[in-house]
Amino acid sequence: MQGQPFRIPGYRGPINPNPNPPDGEARISIYLYRPWLAAGIIGAVVFGVFMVAQIWYMLRRRGTRWFHGLLAFGALMEVGGYAARIKGHENMFRVYVFVASYFLIVVAPIPIAAAIYLMLTYAAARWPNARRLLVMPPKVMVTLFVGVDIVTIAVQVVGAAMVGVVQTKTNRGEKPPMTVTTAGHILLAGLAVQTAFFSTFMVLLILAISRVRHLDLHGQQLRNLRALLYTNLAAGFFVLLRTVYRLAVECQGYFGEANSNQTLFTVFEMVPVIIALGILTVVPIGRWFPKLGDAHQQHEVKD
């Protein structure tokens, strides 16, 4: 009936004041709130600093360029994602800005996770007999886990894009291809598989740490290997925390309390990735590698 307020069951966020929004705008905020300007600026600046540091390491340190390049790329995507959220603060109803921000922030952990996988293979390749730390060949491990991440992130992005499509078509009075709930289930499927595989990697990493004592290492070599692996474990834990948060959000549903709470997004989405990248930025991992000419050193891995 004309004059009645626009309502969507379960939605409690802002409503577009324009009752006939132009193409590309939704009647509701797809974020379910107005993104905080300060959080967007902090995210863009902090990840920008990490990106510059990782590019510096990549250019200065041979042998770990893939590792630092992956982290720099992940940080760049985070910068773009939070820059898009700054634009979302200006106009929270633009669907394409939401999709850009969601895509970049959700996809950014792929190169970060790939660097974490690669870090374990560095340990296996550069310390004497450390190949015994792994239960599968290093290339197989990296290919498997990165491949699963790419597929599951693609599924999540499709789900997020469909949320925008549903809202846009609804605005036009057209029949959407699916409901918001169905789009959320697509997101949930991708997240569930991603969480399961990353949890499996963390188990393999803990297993590798437990096997270090069986290697014939002593002194500085042993301490450096453990420092590398525990750093990897700490960074991986925060990436996993972020992934579990995403899974919990989608389990509750798109219009659930968790997805509507910007504080939870900041604490469990932005902060864990900042900590993970910070851990991997403080000390360039090449400093822990055995020096060329060390006794029993394995072959030097080049990239």
Structural topology:
Blueprint: H1 37-60, H2 65-90, H3 95-107, H4 109-126, H5 138-171, H6 180-211, H7 219-252, H8 262-282
Helix pairs in contact: 1-2, 1-8, 2-3, 2-4, 3-5, 4-5, 4-7, 5-6, 6-7, 7-8
State Rg.
22 Å
| Named CATH topology | Rhopdopsin 7-helix transmembrane proteins
CATH class: Mainly Alpha
In percent terms, what proportion of residues is strand? under 5%
CATH structural architecture: Up-down Bundle
Outline the low-pLDDT stretches: 295-302
**Percent of residues in helices:** 55-70%
Oligomer: single chain
The ordered string of helix (H) and strand (E) elements is HHHHHHHH
Keywords:
303 residues; mainly alpha; Rhopdopsin 7-helix transmembrane proteins; 8 helices; elongated; disordered C terminus; RTA1 like protein; RTA1; membrane
Provide an overview of this structure.
The chain has 303 residues and is mainly alpha-helical. The chain has a single domain, classed as Rhopdopsin 7-helix transmembrane proteins, CATH 1.20.1070. It is 67% helix and 0% strand. Helix 1 runs antiparallel to helix 2, helix 2 runs antiparallel to helix 4 and helix 4 packs antiparallel against helix 7. The protein is elongated and about 70 Å long. The N and C termini lie far apart (65 Å). The C terminus is likely disordered. It comes from Cutaneotrichosporon cavernicola. This is RTA1 like protein. Keywords: Membrane, Transmembrane, Transmembrane helix.
